[in-house]
Design brief:
Blueprint (H helix, E strand, L loop, with lengths): L6 E5 L7 H6 L4 E5 L2 H4 L7 E10 L1 E2 L2 E2 L6 H4 L5 E4 L6 E3 L4 E8 L6 E5 L5 E6 L2 E9 L2 E3 L4 E7 L5 E6 L14 E6 L25 E10 L2 E2 L11 E4 L2 E9 L5 E5 L5 E5 L2 E2 L8 E4 L4 E8 L2 E9 L2 H6 L2 E7 L15 E4 L5
Parallel strand pairs: 3-8, 7-15, 16-19, 18-26
Antiparallel strand pairs: 1-2, 3-6, 4-5, 8-13, 9-12, 9-14, 10-11, 10-13, 14-15, 16-17, 19-24, 20-23, 20-25, 21-22, 21-24, 25-26, 25-27
Length: 348
Amino acid sequence: MPAGEAGTYWYHPHAHGCIARQMWMGLAGGIVIRGPAEQESELALCDDRLVVLRDLGIAGDAPAPHMPHDWHTGKEGPLLLANGRIAPDLQARADLVRLRLVNAANARTFRIARADGRPLVVIALDGRLLAEPVEMDGLELAPGQRADLLVAAREEPVELVAKHARRGVPSPRPRRSRLLRILPARDAKRLPLPRRLGDPAAWGAGVPVAGGRRITMAMFLLDGRPYRPGRIDVRARLGTAEIWRVVNVGTMHHPFHLHTWPFRPLSRNGRPWPFPCVLDTVDLAPGDEVELLVPFTHNHGTTVYHCHIAEHGDRGMMGTIRVDDGLPWQGPVGTDAICGFRGRGAGP
């Protein structure tokens, strides 16, 4: 793995037109990449747990089939699952538990909080470490997003719950709000919270900004047109950066996801981002406009950007981006475009 890629990631199918049904059937999983920054810090002493979140609806003895309205709202179900189980207990193996949360749901946003009202301690978003731990009263994870939490598992069990999240469309309330419960470690040595973590403010620093672009999101459309295999919607140059202004002109939330090139969010609706971070997915409420710094470094080739509500991507809310390195392009363009990128140092 290239240096600097440590973090919490996940995988799922990406055959256009088939994504939503396959994800709803459970075809997704988590990936953890560990690096020296974590292995040589206090984080190495934590109980490191990967938790993949999703929801489900059952019809008979199988996942409930898609109905016509699901292609508009995104498919949701009343059962909340953590690693495939309803409200599991996790026995802590150390004083601090690092929970690597992945939202692998088709459309559900998980609005996560502690049942006791105490703040969450967040150390990473979308796989990238923050500069320092950040306390939050609650955390909203839209489809595709990840968050790493530190939970002190000492005297009493810690319960995480999912509160109802408003997405701008009718959303079924879960039958049970508890996501999971962490049981305290037995006779564990007390561990300190780390003070310094990563350096997200440096993401894209020194990369020349070649320009900017505006991308609009509306039902089944990006920039007013649906996805077409073989069409290149955005061209960029390796070794440069761009300022992207992504605008939700629709009437419901849309999580914007860019493959391969993580971005640093700069502002939302003209207000500076509350703290430095590096993301690959950002949720936009109706009317929202976010400003993103996108450095095109490390990789070149062809991939996609899209709404991460799986049904919306299948219906056409997707575009193709090609990042050129100045050499003649010999890779695929079309339905295989999501796989057509090359790492730094790869041949043409």
